Amino acid sequence: MPTLNHLRGASSALLIAGVLFAVAAAALWALNPASGADHRDSPAAEANAALDITDVYAFRSPANNDNLVVGFGVNGLTAPTSNDSARFNASATYTLHVDVDGDLADDATVNVDFDDATPQNFTITGLGDAITGAVTPAGQSANVVSAGGISAFAGLRDDPFFFDLTGFKSFVAGPYVPAAGLRADGAGAPADAFAGTNTSYVVLELPITAVTGEVASNTGTIKAWVSTSNGGSQLDRMAIPAINTALIPSDMKDGFNQGSPATDVAEFQATAQASIEGLRAAVNGVLDSPVGEEDGGPLGDLTPEQVAGALIPDIVTIDFSQDVVFPNGRQLTDDVIDVALQLVLNRTAGITDDIDANDKSFSSSFPYLAEPFVAASGPTPAGVPTTGGQPLDDGNGISTALVLAVAGGALIVLGGGLTFGRKLTG
Amino acid sequence: MTRTVATGGLLVLGIGAALLALALAFFLVADDGGGRSPAPAAVSADLVTTTSAEIAFWEERLAADPADFTAADRLASAYIQRGRESGDVSDFTRAQAAVNASFASFSDNPAAFGLLATLQNVRHEFAAAIVSAERSLELDPTQDHLLSAIGDAQVGLGLYAEAFDNYTSLTDQAPSLAAFSRLAYVYELRGDLANAEGAWGNALSLDSGSNAEASAWANTQYATFRLNQGDLDDAATPYDAALDSFPGYIHALAGQARVAAANGDYDSAIALYTQVTERQPLPEYVAALGDVYAVAGQTAEAAEQYALVEAIRQLYVANGINTDLQIAVFLADHDLRLDEALASAEAVYAETPGNIYAADALAWALYKNGRAGDALPYAEEALRLATQGASLWYHSGLIHAATGDEASARAHLQTAIDINPHFSPLQAPIAEQTLAELGG
Question: ipTM, 2 decimals?
Answer without folding.
Answer: 0.80
